[in-house]
């Protein structure tokens, strides 16, 4: 039984049917993690004791006939921006190397209560600050399992590497500007952030109006399963959505005929490579074949990068203003002054523009069910590089044109694998929906996945 090639749902089923024990699954997972870690550098901290404790509890529950949780016995990793009680949360920074978490974050508490076993904390760029590179001063470079000379992207670097390499079937990540969707695109995964507030964030992020907890997985249904568990109201998060959680699992079986889709290859300002545009356009045609109406929309809005930078770097700047800058990533230290120099008048003018952007996007989704774009303008980036060579007029986040706008607006958004470039690297297609419409993304993604099976397209290390 090859655990590395199994989905989370398959792992849960074989454990529940007693075809294999949870302890055997976890032992196999930990062995694989230890074997691949020297090549990948995907983990900051490993937690084999936590993992085996959860596995033993699963086997005991099965033997006693107790009801099983949705994630019972499934291995999972957690990005090192999310607290696991009693384990260090370093934020990928030498300034937080001894930061011991007092308690689980809500998402972690929920996956543990559902029976999952946490195998470790995965690498991140420092405070989640970079989109292209997968390195931090604390952990070094995390490598892409598709090609070890390429980056996974950021900032959920280790999460993407470990899932793509078959160590765990899914992982918890965070997304403040694309940090789930970008590495998912570069590593051939499905990655999704729900609408802002759907999955609670606590303790408060350094960028509280942008931050989402999201999911990276190899299949759409596995992502839906994990989303079902981690979503829902949490009183400690003032932005938490109190509405009932939709049935994400059932959404994967809904038909998509008649879905109204807008296809925007540039959003009005992006510069995708010809190869990325061709691959994503070919993918969009599949939705027409499945009975959706697809309309080309060249311009959706103006580039809101200044609005994103004002919010993100203001939060990071205030958080780190008293830290020793010599300990920080030079790329991060270089932008902190930007935030500290921002005047109140300038900042609030951007706050108001952000509200205008939110309203523009809200009106857009009155006419369409989904917006499709490339996830990234490029298909791969060399390891250690912050900005792709053909986009050097942009900074370390602004080159990822397609992702950060939807952290500003808070819309649900995902990336799904849609093709392979000439170098054998995966390409992602971004799906964005209106508020409270994650189900539209999941049903469309599941139908697309069925029309373009991806699970057999595995990277070298898998």
UniProtKB/TrEMBL annotation:
This is Amidase. Pfam families: Amidase. SUPFAM superfamilies: Amidase signature (AS) enzymes (SSF75304). Residues 24-442 form the Amidase domain. It comes from Peribacillus cavernae. It comes from the Bacteria. Belongs to the amidase family. GO terms for molecular function: catalytic activity. Transmembrane segments: none annotated.
């Amino acid at each position: 039984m090859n655990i590395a090639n199994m989905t989370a749902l398959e792992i849960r089923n074989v454990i529940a049917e007693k075809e294999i024990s949870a302890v055997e699954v976890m032992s196999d997972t930990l062995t694989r993690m230890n074997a691949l870690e020297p090549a990948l550098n995907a983990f900051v901290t490993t937690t084999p004791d936590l993992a085996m404790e959860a596995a033993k509890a699963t086997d005991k529950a099965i033997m006693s006939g107790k009801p099983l949780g949705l994630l019972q016995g499934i291995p999972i990793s957690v990005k090192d921006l999310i607290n696991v009680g009693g384990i260090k949360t370093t934020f990928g920074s030498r300034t937080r190397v001894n930061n011991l978490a007092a308690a689980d974050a809500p998402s972690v508490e929920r996956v543990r209560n559902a029976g999952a076993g946490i195998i470790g904390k995965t690498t991140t760029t420092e405070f989640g600050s970079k989109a292209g590179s997968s390195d931090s001063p604390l952990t070094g470079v995390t490598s892409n399992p598709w090609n070890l000379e390429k980056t996974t992207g950021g900032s959920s670097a280790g999460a993407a590497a470990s899932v793509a390499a078959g160590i765990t079937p899914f992982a918890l990540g965070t997304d403040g500007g694309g940090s789930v969707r970008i590495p998912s695109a570069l590593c051939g995964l499905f990655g999704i952030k729900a609408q802002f507030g759907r999955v609670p964030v606590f303790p408060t992020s350094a960028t509280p109006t942008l931050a989402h907890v999201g999911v990276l997985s190899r299949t759409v249904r596995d992502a839906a399963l994990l989303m079902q568990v981690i979503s829902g109201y949490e009183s400690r998060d003032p932005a938490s959505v109190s509405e009932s959680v939709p049935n994400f699992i059932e959404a994967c079986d809904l038909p998509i005929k008649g879905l109204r889709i807008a296809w925007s290859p540039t959003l009005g300002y992006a510069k995708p490579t010809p190869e990325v545009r061709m691959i994503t356009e070919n993918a969009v045609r599949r939705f027409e074949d499945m009975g959706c109406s697809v309309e080309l929309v060249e311009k959706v809005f103006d580039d809101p990068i200044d609005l994103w930078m004002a919010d993100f770097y203001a939060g990071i700047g205030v958080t780190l203003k008293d830290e020793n800058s010599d300990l920080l990533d030079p790329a991060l230290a270089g932008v902190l002054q930007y935030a500290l120099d921002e005047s109140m008048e300038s900042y609030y003018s951007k706050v108001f523009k952000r509200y205008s952007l939110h309203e523009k996007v809200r009106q857009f989704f009155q006419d369409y069910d989904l917006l499709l774009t490339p996830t990234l303008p490029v298909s791969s980036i060399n390891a250690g590089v912050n900005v792709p060579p053909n986009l050097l007029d942009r900074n370390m986040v602004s080159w990822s044109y397609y992702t950060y706008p939807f952290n500003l607006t808070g819309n649900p958004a995902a990336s799904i694998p849609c093709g392979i470039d000439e170098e054998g690297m995966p390409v992602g297609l971004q799906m964005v929906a209106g508020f409270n419409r994650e189900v539209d993304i999941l049903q469309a993604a599941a139908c697309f996945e069925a029309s373009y099976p991806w699970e057999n397209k595995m990277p070298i290390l898998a």
